[in-house]
Design goal:
Blueprint: H1 2-20, H2 25-42, H3 44-57, H4 63-89, H5 92-98, E1 99-103, H6 107-115, E2 119-122, H7 129-139, E3 144-148, H8 154-165, E4 170-174, H9 180-187, E5 191-194, E6 205-210, E7 213-218, H10 220-228, E8 231-239, E9 246-250, H11 262-279
Parallel strand pairs: 1-9, 2-5, 2-8, 3-4, 3-5
Antiparallel strand pairs: 6-7, 8-9
């Protein structure tokens, strides 16, 4: 009975999400502002994670300021969830109008055409992450590749893959599978859309500072970039206020990255991400347990 009710609830929720894609983005933003206040109250575990992360990363801030930042984060997070209706189902012409691109979006195409050199798009976990992927697919000619986490519910998994692949110039590879198909795709000229800043445990990771706290961080961006001679171009996505759309910044490639020292590269990458977070702290994904994996002998932080 519980399984049946859960299944019905998921299908109803996805049906409502589909209906939302017909609404103008300013209306979705107003809806998100109201829904986020409810979510902040009822999503207690995620609220506690966000507040704990903010305490660890901004200990100098008064408690009231961190709570206000957490509430603002829930508003942007809720809007990003509702925005997926537009990203998954709205026509391409509407998305092109709503996504405002800044910077050198053509870098990957030029490097491949002139040097046969692939590009890694380094995209930290801001809440508008999926918009960065849409900008890459819609507004630049170089085909892309990425890794994705399989969803536990088959319908959600199918919708997520369809939403990310519906413009036809991308491949996505399950995180649990072998990395070899991804490497072949990159060597064939696909740009790699890489999400570098989540805690995936100790495998191929090092503890490097993130806002001064040791954080298990993947060494793969440095190692892969060095092995394949990749340019590493950060891509930062932002939700604009009042439903004005989204801004996606294609930044200059990281200078001096990679080197022969993967751990030093990874620490430098975290410093870069920290600097970007400070520019728009409420839009970073604070509800993820970024410090879940701890160095041996260290106490748990959550």
């Amino acid at each position: 009975m519980k399984h049946t009710l859960r299944e019905a609830g998921i299908r109803l929720g996805l049906g409502l999400l589909w209906l939302l894609h017909w609404l103008p983005l300013p209306m979705l933003a107003m809806l998100a502002a109201g829904v986020s206040r409810l979510l902040y109250r009822v999503a207690a575990s995620r609220r506690r994670i966000a507040l704990r992360n903010l305490e660890l990363c901004f200990p100098e801030q008064p408690v009231a300021e961190r709570e206000a930042l957490a509430r603002a984060h829930f508003r942007w997070l809720t809007q990003s969830l509702l925005d997926r209706a537009v990203l998954w189902w709205a026509p391409a012409w509407r998305l092109r109008r709503l996504i405002h691109v800044e910077g050198d979006i053509g870098l990957a195409e030029r490097l491949w055409q002139t040097e046969q050199r692939p590009t890694m798009w380094l995209c930290p976990h801001f809440v508008a992450l999926d918009v960065a992927g849409a900008a890459i697919l819609l507004k630049q000619p170089r085909p892309g590749a990425s890794i994705y986490q399989r969803q536990s519910h088959p319908l959600m998994d199918r919708l997520m893959k369809r939403g990310r692949l519906r413009f036809g110039n991308a491949e996505i590879f399950p995180r649990q599978d072998s990395v070899k198909p991804l490497l072949r795709a990159i060597k064939s000229g696909r740009g790699f859309f890489n999400l570098p800043d989540m805690d995936f445990g100790l495998r191929d990771a090092a503890f490097v500072p993130f806002f001064g706290v040791p954080a298990a961080t993947l060494l793969a961006p440095s190692r892969m970039a060095r092995m394949l001679d990749m340019a590493v171009q950060p891509v930062i996505a932002e939700i604009l206020p009042r439903g004005q759309g989204w801004r996606v910044r294609f930044m200059p490639p990281l200078d001096g990255f990679p080197t022969e020292h993967a751990e030093a590269d990874t620490a430098a990458m975290n410093r870069f991400i920290e600097a970007q977070i400070r520019l728009q702290p409420a839009q970073y994904l604070w509800v993820h347990k970024r410090f879940k994996t701890r160095p041996p002998g260290s106490p748990r932080l959550y």
